[in-house]
Specification:
The protein is of the alpha+beta class and 375 residues long. Among the domains are: 68 residues, no CATH class; 124 residues, 2-Layer Sandwich (Nucleotidyltransferase, domain 5), CATH 3.30.420. It has a 6-stranded antiparallel beta barrel. Strands 11-14-13-12-15 form a 5-stranded mixed β-sheet. Strands 1-4 form a two-stranded antiparallel sheet. 31% of the residues are buried.
Amino acid sequence: MHYDYEQFEKVITRSWVGELWKFLDSNEILIEGHIELPKRWYSSDIYIMEALYHNKRISSEQLQACNRCRQHLCVLTVSEMATADGKRIRESCMAVERDNIYLSMYEWPVQPRPHKQDRDIWRKCILMTLVIDEARKQLKDDLGHWNDWTKQLEWKWMYDKHDGTLFGKEATTWRAWQAQNSRTRGTSGNYSRTGWTNDNLPRGCVRCSIQPIREGVCKVTGIERVPQINTIDSEDEMVQGRIGDVSDALQRATDNHASNWVFTKNHTTWPKENGEDLAKATGEGKLVAIADGSHDRGRGTMAWLLAADNDEWSSAAPISRPGEIDADPYRSELGGLYGLMVALEILCRLHNIDQGSVTFSCDCDVMSTSGCHGT
């Protein structure tokens, strides 16, 4: 409650919290303490009304209109209005129409759909505040990656990246939707509702957002971004840029060299089928992980291996140059561990693995007792 009540008075919903805020502000009373804020979906998410408030071109009356539209849509943050790839605002939200692609976590007040004047104000304010490309509704700022807790969300549209099938939740089953043209899957074409349903989704499905076209036909407007395991085109190319959305840990590389040697073209054995067998082995507790490192006369190298019965994923690379003052045997050993942890992180996120176990093996006491403590 550090904000000036008078500045927000016209957009505050009448409630016990609002009345308390008014009383405290009028009597110059400040309460300090921890208040649990609504969760954000993306790492760089922002609250809608806060963003609109800071746009000085928007009047108090326009803020009221926007707040009515926001309450009708039942959204708090920009990500709740965004396509599943976090790049654009969904057209349904621009038009103040509920699309129900997910089930909200909160109980919302009853707010009928606002009249056209309010909706026009909402569209104008969203465009001038959050959008850089009006035609495509592209956001000015990338929302980043999905936060881990969002796995709890009840998402109603999923996309199978292996064969391009779209799945929509209907009661307790998943209805399959097929691309009308096999060459225009994903966000390139329309999908038609089929008669096929299944109780469970195929492994590896990701969240997506859709826009209805007509009865039984829709278009995919965004697909959740996930790390892709592909061969690197050049030995010097850094993979971290491609997997930057995997987790905050990967974005904060341990040092300037970390992103150079996790995966290299000439020294990496890539898994088959995006690591399906490795993922299965992880869930069954049968995956084996091995890390190693060596150091000789100022040169350090590392290697790691993930192995299952029918597949493996491995890499080996130099991690230091002669003359570096921080090159030593322990750094090489920990380099192997770091590469292994990156690979496991990608595997788990790519295949939505939330339980299982891995048998880990190394020949460095320091690494096994300190580097892997608590894992």
